Amino acid sequence: MTTAQFSSLLDALGEGLYERREILGLTLLTALAGESVFMLGPPGVGKSLIARRLKFAFQDSESFEYLMTRFSTPEEIFGPVSIKKLKEDRYERNTNKYLPSAQIVFLDELWKAGSAIQNALLTVLNERIYRNGDEVMETDIRCIIAASNELPNESELLGALYDRFLIRYELQSIKSASLFTRMLGEKTDTSGDTVPTDLKITRAQWNDWQTKVENVALTESVTNIIHIVREKIEAANKKEDDPQQHIIVSDRRWKKIIGLLKAVAFVHEREQVQLADCFIMTHCLWNQPNQRDKANAIVREAIRDHGYALDMRLPTLRKEIRAFADDIEKESRIPVTESKETPRIVAQEYHLVNSKNDRFAAEKVRVVDVKNLQRNEGKVINYYDGENKLVNRIETILGNEPFTLEVTVNGQRETLQLETHREEYTRYISKRPHKLVQAYWEEWGEKIEQFLCEQEKRFEAQQPNELDQLPNHVLIGKESAALIRHNADNIREELSSLRMQLEKAQHMFRTPEWQHA
Model pTM greater than 0.90? Predict the structure, then answer.
């Protein structure tokens, strides 16, 4: 399947429908991945219409549709018991024209069905097989779509049946006023087949695509994002006091998510999954609608902040360069702690001043004003009392003695003393390391530089192709694409920063101060 064919098929399926392209695309992708969809929404928003439209994407396909009630029986879903087989002492159902023989299945108000129906659906949903008496029947079901205007009850919310619906999607009424107006005047027969024959998927194509989807490869960056999203979900659950609000994703669902991501890559004519495809997993993570924003934020933050970072081994590279620089500094510079007299600073912005007599009343002066003073050029500055109130404003110069100021009061020169204290500081003395140590550093630095060069080349070789494909992605918007570009820019900047850190460390021992002493 080409991207153009997938897009054209979505256009045809969505003819006469508004704000439904995303769910149509997700449903078609789910069918390609051999999975199932659950749609949540009030009556009248087109849940059953989506399922009926999907049928038209396939040539010669049969659909099965049923509205569940508390009184629905297995015979209504899987077919009546065969009288002929009973006479042969075999309990089998006649499944023709029922769910096991269909390609597209739509089950409305699924949660109202009894346990006999729900239990029988488990293997159909997960393995696409139906146990018909003693016979294990392999079905040709491409997609099972369930819908309801309510979620399953709390005991079923995390149960096996709900877990098997990979995509969860909440359908709402049309939000756009202009599209709502167009819908009111729409003349297209929404119940009819809107897909041209040349766009319909044949059985041969379907079988071929299933193999190709399975053969799509996962990139390391995508695998890393899966791990990060999983860890972020676990961290979010620990912060949530209400267990009912925990986002629970089983190992089975993670495995199925990979299959969906492969289907996304396949319809974009790629042989491997890319970061952009990972945004789709948002629709697979939430259990309740109020968790959707949290799941979306987790996925977006993981892609924005980590994206290609782990793929480029940046955490390892950061750690190695830091260790390299620390080892050089430890062996080539000896820290010496000393102290010096320095003006005391109070309240983060004042120096304390002392006058030898009472002609000048002031206790504080601003640090910034003192910094701007010169010896031979007076400047008018403010002086304050102990409560930081202005008490004097007078021309001042730096004094001849350290930490002194000079002012003229009533024609007489007055020297003000800044209160000081001893302040410790560290200075470094260069140390000549042994030649063997220097040789070790050269070898270590060369290995880091070689690894850094490999990552830079790998990144630049990978990025142009992947970033250039973003505008043509059928299922993500400009905002999501911008997050990937943001991450790529950050990685490029960090690679450059790491190179500068490495070169600085190498410079420390290649041209140290002791060589010029």
Answer: no
